[in-house]
Amino acid sequence: MLNRRRFLQSAVAAAGCLSGVSPIGARAAFPDGEGAAGALRITEPFPGAVLNHRHGEAVDGGLKIRVAGTAAPGDRVTVNGQPATRAGEQFTAEVVLRDKVTDIKAVSDGLLGQSEAQVKVRWDRHSMPRYRFSIDDNSFFLRDIAQHEYRSLLDCWYLKMLQDLNTKYGVKFTVNIYYTTGDDFSLPQLSDRYRSQWRDMSDWLKLAFHAHANLPDRPYQDAPPEKLLADLDQVAEQIHRFAGPEAYAPPTVIHWGMTRQESLQPLTTRGVRALSGYFVKWNDAYDVNYRFNDEISEYLSRHDAWMDFSTGIVFSRVDIICNNVAIDDIVPTLEPQIQDPNTAEIFDLFTHEQYFWPFYSHYIPDHADRLDRAIRWVTEQGYKPVFFHEGFLGAPD
Question: Which of 17, 37, 47, 125 qualifies as a FRET site for 326, CA 20 to 30 Å off?
Fold first, then answer.
């Protein structure tokens, strides 16, 4: 756990906008020749960009956005059939988004013939300022319930703490759980006599798969899809047994945020539509990024979300890890992101269960206060609590 803690301490979310990005696919860099001088390129928007009202101008039935790129000087460039404005190698144009998904195509005509470049974007049409709170690595509170056989789930102080925050702010929690803590507890030991309580709390508390267990680290980074799906199904079956379908949510965070790329499409068969990660550079390499390439990881390090059109999964960047940030630094960590249109619309708030427990080696006495500080701030800024698996990252779709 020490190495994990050191890693988490280094994972600070970056803010700002990305410029000059190449039109790449989800798993490849430039196609042959695309990086050559004078080649036609769309540099804005990024392929897979998730765009909302902050990225353009609302018009009747649509969102008008700016398209920019480069082409050989002197070439005539059109974007979705309309002439672009030229200035040296640069071109700009305007496109109105009217559908959830829009293909943007640039065509250049010149001495060397005709070239095409294309990107696809997702319009978050009904977007509103919103936040999600996710808690990873949960197993201790479930063991506590099983061992004490409480009369009520809320006799478990951990769930009572979460309920108090819900009562105070309306916050919703996605609690990502393990199948086992080890030799002393696994989910089949948990009684199903609390099902009605889980159902009653399900409007603000959801249980989701995280991993089979806390160790080994990075269990799915190199594992075949079949292993990931088997572990997911095992946990999902237990959640439905002891808590009922109302309390279940498809996973939105896989343990360590690392999977083989070929695992992503199979995850959609289990209802996965959104996944969160850090998308941070650590030791000169991007990590906790579901093994996407550097271009996509860099983009996500500076934007709220990105759409992988090859799978239909939208990826979200975690904005804060509360167990890593001192209470007086909570607001200074979040506040700059509200100034940038690329990071201002959605807050992905995050922490880990183990730091709440006094027996844990890295127990944080003011952990609950850190959550309170973060949730209070986003609430005061007008952000609405959501579940990412509902609608489009919690917005109507």
Answer: 17
Give the C-alpha separation, 245 to 261, whole Å.
Answer: 29
Retrieve residue 355's tokens. 């730091």
The answer to whether the beta carbons of residues 278 and 11 sit under 8 Å apart is yes
* CB neighbour list of residue 65: distance below 8 Å, 6 or more residues apart: 45, 51, 55, 56, 94, 95, 96, 97, 121
The verdict on 106 and 198 lying in the same domain is: no
Residue 22 or residue 255, greater confidence: 255
| DSSP-based three-state secondary structure for 42 | strand
| C-beta atoms surrounding 321 within 10 Å | 20
228 token code pair = 């990931």
CATH number of the domain to which 9 belongs: 3.20.20.370
- Torsional class of 16: left (φ above 0), alpha (ψ -120 to 50), beta (otherwise): left
pLDDT in tens, 176-210: 999 999 889 999 999 999 999 999 999 999 999 99
The arithmetic mean of pLDDT across residues 12-20, rounded, is: 32
Measured N-to-C along each axis, helices 157-169 and 367-380 cross at an angle, to the nearest 10 degrees, of 20
Of 106, 121, 136, the domain-final residue:
121
- pTM higher than the cut 0.85: yes
Tell me what pLDDT residue 143 has. Answer: 98
| Closest C-alpha to 143, from 368, 357, 367 | 357
Residue 34 lies in a domain: no
- Which DSSP state fits 368? H
Domain count, the chain: 2
Same domain assignment for residues 68 and 207: no
- CA separation (Å) from 100 to 19, 97, 120, 122, 308? 24, 8, 10, 6, 14
pLDDT score for 16: 31
Contact 241, 233 (CB under 8 A): no
Domain interval for residue 291: 2-14+127-385
Q: Which residues of 46-57 are buried (b: 16+ CB within 10 A; e: fewer)?
A: bbbbbbbbbbbe
Mean pLDDT of 244-261: 98
Of 87, 121, 155, which closes a domain?
A: 121
pLDDT digits (tens, 9 = 90+) for 302-336: 999 999 999 999 999 999 999 999 999 999 999 99
